[in-house]
Automatic annotation (TrEMBL):
Belongs to the EamA transporter family. It comes from the Bacteria. Its main location: membrane. This is DMT family transporter. Pfam families: EamA (PF00892). InterPro entries: AA-Vitamin_Transporters, EamA_dom, EmrE-like. PANTHER family: INNER MEMBRANE TRANSPORTER, S-ADENOSYLMETHIONINE_S-ADENOSYLHOMOCYSTEINE TRANSPORTER. Residues 3-135, 148-282 form the EamA domain. The chain crosses the membrane at residues 31-51, 63-81, 93-112, 119-136, 148-166, 175-195, 207-228, 240-259, 265-283.
Amino acid sequence: MRTYLLLLFCAALYGSNFVLGSLLLEAFPALHLSAYRLMVSSVFLLIYLVATRGLTKITFRDSVYLVPFVLIGMLLHQISFFTGLRTTDATTASLILSLAPIFTALLARLFLKEPLTKRMAAGSIVAFAGVFFVVGPGGSMGTAITEGVWIMFICMLALSGSMILMKKLTERMDAFVATVYTTLLGCISVYPVAVWSEPHVQVEPHFWWWVLLVGSALLIQGLCAVIWNAQIRKVGAAKASLFLNLQPFVAMILGYITLGTPISLTQVAGSVLIISGVVLATVQGQRTRKTQKFSPVER
């Protein structure tokens, strides 16, 4: 239950990332925004690592998963996320990324041999149906497939692939160490691309824009990354990814609070389906395992 609560906490902050990212794009160029946030989180994580544990040597076998993760989970994911948000609203973007649990479960079944149980499949279907209720009329199902939608779809695939790679990486090294190195290498890989694709950029936003950038970087790309990667090792990539279905619900609530966007009864019903799907695939599965653990046969 502690693991599930931590995943719920991360999913809530990840959901707010869509609204915060859309706001920050008003003051920062897309790729520079990604590079700056990675820079802030990298410095924070690196200082904490050196102060508490010290640097760990990376072996060649570690780099087999580390390098692909940086290219897919950091470079491709970061670029596609902020580039897609320039032409796609936060709600539609959150819907597309909510497809990640389904693709992650399929990839986990293929590459990690994780079981795809009937309960997990049913929970995914229920939560996925709730995603469309949350978006409601005017969401991506009723919108033409624009360039931004395709970019966010690529972002979703990169996210799914990164969770598989992180699961393999944390089997070889500590989850926190893996988070520090991937974030640092992600910053090193994203910044040159930002300078090359968006040259001659003069960023002079207001002081409070920088506060929002630093705060979101520390919480979402720093603290959440550490917690999320550690929990993936405990419950598996497929089950952890189910919590991503909560992102549209969080984006809807935060949009109402910050932007005054109205919430319909249909969206409320959808959010109930999303939460029910996550509960179906997680809490009840835990009860089943406990029942099996203390079955009369084993005793």
